[in-house]
Write a structure and sequence with these properties.
heterodimer; A: 351 residues; alpha/beta; Glutathione S-transferase Yfyf (Class Pi), Chain A, domain 2; Rossmann fold; four-stranded parallel sheet; 15 helices; 8 strands; globular; B: 344 residues; FAD/NAD(P)-binding domain; seven-stranded mixed sheet; 19 strands; 30% strand
Amino acid sequence: MSIYSNWSSYQKEIAEDKFYYARSCIRQNFFPGSEKAFLNILSKNLGKDILDDPLHTSCSGIAYHADILPFETTMTMVARQFAMMTEAGYENFVSSCITSFGIYSEVLETWHHFPEKEAQIREMLYKATKREFKIPQNVAHTSDIIFKFREGIREKGVNKLVNIHTGEPLKGVEHIGCHYAKVFPSKGIGGSEFPYVLAGMIEAWGGTVVDYPERRHCCGFGFRNYLVKANRGYSVSNTKRKLESMAPFQPDFILANCPGCSMFIDKWQYTLKQMDGVVYGQKAIPVLTYEELAGLVLGYDPWELGMQMHEVDVEPLLDKMGIKYDSSKKYEGVNGKKIGQPQRWEGCGKL
Amino acid sequence: MYDIIIIGGGVAGMQAAIAAKKLNLEPIILEKENKLGGKVAHKYSLFPTFSSAEQLIDRLEAQIIENKIDVRYHCEVVSIHKEELSVGYTLNVGDIKKVDNLQARSILITTGYEPFDARIKQEYGYQVYDNIYTSMDLEAMMKKGLILTKEGNTPESIAFIHCVGSRDSQIGNEHCSRVCCVTGVKQATELCQMIKGARVYNFYMDMRMFGSGYEEMYKEAQQNYQVRFIRGRVSELSQTIDHKVRLKAEDTLISKPIAITVDMVILLVGMCGAVNNESIGESAGLELRENGLFKPVNAFDSTTKSTVNGIFYAGCAESPKNISESMNQASQAILNISTYLESK
């Protein structure tokens, strides 16, 4: 037996083209430029066919994990998503949200083991909507797609994850969402123990990955931790544990593939400054989505990518990469309208 | 023609050869290394007496010389021809490889075991992170009398992880290697003796103290040396920026997750079949267990007999054993071989 033979079970098949895109409920508020960037990167930079269908809905994952909806309701909503995909003539389903990706995987796994459940849901969907569906040929998370095309992005890229002042690779912390590979390890690249989906991007684009003790620890977001206000301290303490562990390695950025992780590792840095007076890193550590990072490599304008919405300023990272940006336009919306500025602190704006 | 070819010159093979001579049989030992003693020769001390491993090998070797027993070194056996009871082997001397064949009236397989390759349990970071060693590595360090971290410091805190490569369905090794538990107790005690004030932790699933004197060792390790035994599997190891090892586990007796940082981690690696067991087994039509060790005719009164006439087993080649069990089985195997040869 080869000592790495078990690695084969961590591989994943990802479709080449013709994707049906399902947006996230929360990402458009948290990181509003990321989903648009994904669509642009796929269709304009990589020439892929991807459908951004306005007819699809929430997968109901938040309600499911908050114990508000029964699983049958969630399965029926997922069935409707698949019906939308089938009617549009697509077979490869791409989810922008990690929790949705976990939900789709869980529903398909349930139907695989309990075909009678699938039959029941098909009947319920038909009674409610007169719709029918085909099981997708391929289900992937958007980070899987960027991972698959990471070499193509590097070839078309104009920027690298290299510090232009020192010539050294930039140090990236990668943080994998729990619902990506901890629910069904075989559905994620590298499984739950050696997830490679984000590390592969960082390495392909010239950076190095920081291996720190709490690398696999949850960010602490957790719907129950966040939705129940009294539990938010638990969420903060988990992020604090990660930040404390990674800070000595002096990472240049954090890369996450979960809407909740990206949001909270970014925002909790401000919270922790207010609670403990601690700033991790020289000026806090910028947190990026993989679409934002791919966009920067491809030469997208940082403000077009929505990076002004981050709690922690991304300018130190942009400066290291040698990316030009117009500070005066940071807080301008699409029509030049001022969108407001966050409170200044060590991690954001000049004090 | 020799009466018995003994494949493997570990403690079982040596004991078998000595016993054979006492019954006026003519044995020959084929040993792949340049010295006798097998895995025991690489050990610093033996449980439960803490006596020297080297002294045991010296005693056995003296009897091998005294009895004028033939030993061929550098012989790596790769096949057995069961019809004519001959052994195919490669003589490895330096870069020169010579293929040869040897026939006898019977064959005794005492190939011992191969330590589990700890790199397979990737979450334990062996050969990825600094200051993570196996129990075999630690024995070698103890033999040299130098217990040092990679940075050259004496470790103040050491954690042992039990059942690495044993009782683990994730990697397909369901079997218990039996002696790792007591090895962990022995090595923990010795580290406490060698390093004053050392904090030593043992993360275990069960403590299987099956041998005479083992339970007493376990008790002494706790009472006299304050070795901390924590029931729980370690989920992963990682490196801190100052090259210490961060360890995460669950203490299943108090149902709490724990994380500690130590200077050194020792992985108590289990036993797997010797490298050539598969080719030997296939060539001779011998049945292997799932763990790669040889399966005897039955588990009670014929543990030394294979399903092929004239081929016998002893020691860890058949199943995980401690030294005394291996040597006793070797003597038993010779008795069975003697009976077999008389009946021919």
